[in-house]
Amino acid sequence: xxxxxxxxxxxxxxxxxxxxxxxxxxxxxxxxxxxxxxxxxxxxxxxxxxxxxxxxxxxxxxxxxxxxxxxxxxxxxxxxxxxxxxxxxxxxxxxxxxxxxxxxxxxxxxxxxxxxxxxxxxxxxxxxxxxxxxxxxxxxxxxxxxxxxxxxxxxxxxxxxxxxxxxxxxxxxxxxxxxxxxxxxxxxxxxxxxxxxxxxxxxxxxxxxxxxxxxxxxxxxxxxxxxxxxxxxxxxxxxxxxxxxxxxxxxxxxxxxxxxxxxxxxxxxxxxxxxxxxxxxxxxxxxxxxxxxxxxxxxxxxxxxxxxxxxxxxxxxxxxxxxxxxxxxxxxxxxxxxxxxxxxxxxxxxxxxxxxxxxxxxxxxxxxxxxxxxxxxxxxxxxxxxxxxxxxxxxxxx
Length: 398
Known about the structure:
Elements: H1 41-71, E1 79-81, E2 83-85, E3 88-109, E4 115-120, E5 127-128, E6 133-137, H2 140-173, H3 179-211, E7 214-216, E8 221-226, E9 233-234, E10 241-256, E11 268-273, E12 280-291, E13 297-304, E14 315-332, E15 337-339, E16 342-349, E17 352-357, E18 359-361, E19 367-372, E20 379-381, E21 393-395
Parallel strand pairs: 1-21
Antiparallel strand pairs: 2-20, 3-10, 3-14, 4-6, 4-9, 5-8, 6-7, 8-10, 10-13, 11-12, 11-14, 12-13, 14-19, 15-16, 16-17, 18-19
Helix pairs in contact: 2-3
């Protein structure tokens, strides 16, 4: 009989138990004496899951390594900014204001007396010469006053003539008349003369007041507004009309009190009428000496260098040149940082932002004149928002 294979033991005799006792014959096939035990079911199920978990962890580590290599957090962070090199160039300070067209000469016509308006001789838009009849007020009562004054004057003149005649007769008698009579006659002449003067003054006053019932044009110009109609009761508080000389127009505007001390007579101004693209030259012609406490504005008048035709009240944009320099350093307002540390800019040196204190002229403009703290050729960050001292920066295209 051949030897059994390695790892198994097969017996052809009656089977026995482990203690050598015979086992009953069952008629079954011989059973191997040694059989490999099957692996536990739980171990068989968990091995594939553990393998997937290991693969997943490895994938996450690989992704994290890739992101780290891409972003390189260990490297210094560089911020892209826009640079500007400081240069000396002509610079101006301009104050932009809005104003309105006004007439250099404008008069509101109001009567000096009260009464019923009987006549209006003009209409809106009419051009009238100086002294033209504009309107009349009923003067019946005043005409009666004039006639009464005239009658009183006539009576005073007659009394004066009689007094003078009496004095002349007394004086002609010479020594035949008592001295007291002559003196009385002289006093009567004097009194009559004074009465004539008084009545003359009353008559003149009545005539002058009569003239007030007729309204005449004080200047030559155009009737801008007409606020009354015949038959209306008017008085000194009534604005009848507005008369303006449109041959010489100007611009009336207000300047904020923050810049009031910067405005001077004859400063150049560039004027643009609403609805036009043409720029017109002008100058500061009047500057008020008082700031309006209610508005905080300083009244300023601008004159056109050349005659202009435009409606009264039209809006005008004015740029007043308050300062002009042949060479100055300017920077964008966004480049200027103002905080508790003062006023400064960020100058770029070897790719690093360095804070530097500067002196500027604060002005309502997009660019400010820098008077100290930087020099021509310095490279400055044009927008300092979010920039900190020592930050690494690099130039980008604006």
